[in-house]
Structure formats: C-alpha cells, structure tokens
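W.,

You were right to be curious about this one. When I first looked at the sequence I had no strong expectations either way, so I just let the prediction run and decided to look at it fresh. Below is the sequence, 436 residues in total, followed by the output.
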Amino acid sequence: MADESQQHLVARLVGYLARLRRPALLITVACFAYYLATLWEYYEWPRVIYLTILLLLPVLPQFGNQARNPVWVPLFSFGLLALFYYDMSQEYLTDSYLRSGLLAFSDIAANFEITSAITAYLEWFWTWWRVAAGFAVFAAALPLLGRLASWLDRARDKYQQHQLAEAETRRQIEQRRSEERAQERVRLRALHPMSAATRPGKMTGFEPQLLAPLAHELPRSMFGLLPRSVEGNQLLRALTMTKELAENATFWDMKLPDDEFALVNPTCVIVSGREVTVVHARSWVQGDVTWRLVDGELACFDNATGHEVGEPKQMTEDIAHTHEFFVRRLAQLGVTIPVSTVIVLLPSDAGMGTVEPIKWSDAFPILGLPDFVTKLSAQGPFDHRKPGAEYVIRTLRQLTSHPSGIAPQSNEYLRETQATLPRNPYETGSFDPYAT
C-alpha cells in the first residue's frame, strides 16, 4: 500500500510538472531573449553562442515527441532561470573578465588566472545556496499548486455539468411543449378541416390563368429542356413577362447526378449579374392566408378564421444538400461567384397570400413570386464577359436533363446538354459561352 501511495504521489507530481512544461518554456525563452540582448550589447560573442546552445536544449523536445519526458523540461528550465537570476544579479568583480560565477570558468580557463578562479568559485557557492533554497521552496510548493489546480478543475467541471444539466432540462421542457402544441394543432385540424382559403388573396398578375396565354420565349441565354412541371412552367412564363428570362442565364429541367444522395432537383438555376440562384418553386395553398414558421414546420393559416389550412410542410435537409452540391461544384473550378438558394411560393388563381420573413432550415429565404422577381431585378443582368462566366455556364449546362432522361455522372467529364435552342454567337466579345 505504501508503494502504491508513493507511486500515486509521484504520478501526481509528474502530472503537475507536465502541466508546467509550456509556461516554463515560455518564461525561459523570454529570459534568454532578454539576457542575450544584454550580452549582444557588450559584444560577448562566446557567451552568446554558449547560451544559445543552452536555450535549444529545452526547446528542441517541444518540436519532437512532446509526450516524451515531460518532467525534465520545466525542471531544467527553472534551473536555467535560477542560473540567469544569479548571472544577471552579479556586479563586476575585481577582475574585469568576471561577471558571473558558473559561466566565468570559460573566461578564466582562457587566461589561467587561478586566484580569480577561486574567487569566482567562492562567490558562486555563496550565491547559489540562496538559489537552491528558493528552488527547494518552489519544489515544495508544487503539490500545493497542483491541489489548487485540481480544485479549480473540479469546480470548473461541476459548473459545466450544471450548465449542461440546465440546458438539457430546458430542451426537454421545450420538446414537451412543442409536442403538446403539435397535438393541439392536429386536434384543431381534425375539428376544422380546411384545404383552401375562405377568401381570395392579393392579385399579383402572376396567376396561372393570366400567364397561360403568354407565349414562351427562347432567348439565347436559356439552357436545357422546357420545364415539365407545373411550377416550372408558371415560373418560366412569369420570368418571360418581366423580361428577367432574357436578361439572365437560366437553366431548366435540371437533373442532378444519380450518385449524389439526398439531393432534390431544383426548378431552375438563374445566373444574374451578382450571383447564382438555385430556385425551388412550390405551388402550395394560396389566397387570403399567411405562411409562418410553427415548431420547425412551415404552416399555412387562414386569415379569416385563424385555422390551419392543409398539412404543415416539413423542412427537410435535401435542399441544404443541393445548395452545398452547387457550391462545391463551382468551387472545384475556382469560380468565386456567390451561390444562393431560395424557395419561391407561386400564386394560385385565388391570388397570393402573405409570407412571413422566415427561412428554410434557418438558411434559405422563403419568398413569394412577386418578392423574388423584385430581388432578381435588383441584381442586374448577367454579363457573359465577366471572369469565370465561361465555367459557370459550362458547369450548369452539363447538369441540365438529357432528352433521354439520363442523369449526368459526377465522376466523369460531364457531356454538354444537347442543344434545343438556337446558339447564335454574340456580336461583341471574343468568347461566347453560349455558343456550342
């Protein structure tokens, strides 16, 4: 038992010394720098070289295996500090060569001055017993310092555990409250089932019945096949009406690689004068309604009755994965153009509701179609002559759907989409990224 307790004490002492390794190293380096500056002023080159070698002794192990012999570094460092304390506190002795005790032997040996050597030795012995006593006091105080450090560590750990416990309690309470609110919403939907708004919303001019007579435009900056979805067709006609389709580069009917998991094909991708926008259009319930975030879900409420309309929309992570896919694909080509993702709610024939300022997964804004068109117009038209425009166009063209319906592969050089639109080069500029 005695041996085990002694081993435990030695292990703790080693742990304390290991903790002091970095502070001891920093203090030693600082003192050496000051001392070497003093010697440099007096042009004492041999002692500068000698002390530089001593300085490297505790420093070199730090650049090697730091787990090797962690104890001797602070011991040796503090021993050298004691030597510096003595050497810097000495005044000139009768011999002009002598300034310190221990380090003076190199000067004495060169001049064979025995009397000065004896004087230096006695002076060194008289001074170092005080240094040794101070070092002994410091060594005796190490266990006390270690106990204090351990007590502070335990106090910090208890405080952190208390904070974590309180955070976990708050999380559980909020989770139970959220579950109760969800159950209440389910009960209210069962009591007051609603699939549409009771009153029409605000008319925007982008309603499907108003856009239906509008003919499609096929500008040179439009790539891919015509959208097959209802949302894509309505968005295409809306951008045609506002002239945004002709001013920006747009990519439709995109089909992301099959070997990329957890991705959702966007409705389209728009390249404006400022950024690349990945658009996910949604034809959800509209009218005199308000879309808001409730317990992490996107819910629609009828403004007239206050009841929830339809089922809430779950904010899945596939949109975030799709956003990261486009960011990564452009970054691989060294293109630094910003990439944004937006969820656009399209108006119905009953008009457009209100969308509160919310974000999908706290990252991507959810906008009504009129607000999205206003935002897109403020970004300015796309300029194909800008640096990097060539790689943006080629990369996004390769991600549009092939007429056969086959998705492109991301692990090989992607083929360019078969052109379904006229490709006439621009009259200005030396390179037209739209030309095949």
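Here's what jumped out at me. The first strand starts at residue 222 and ends at 224. And, maybe more interesting for your project: The two ends are 86 Å apart (CA to CA).

Coffee later to discuss?

I.
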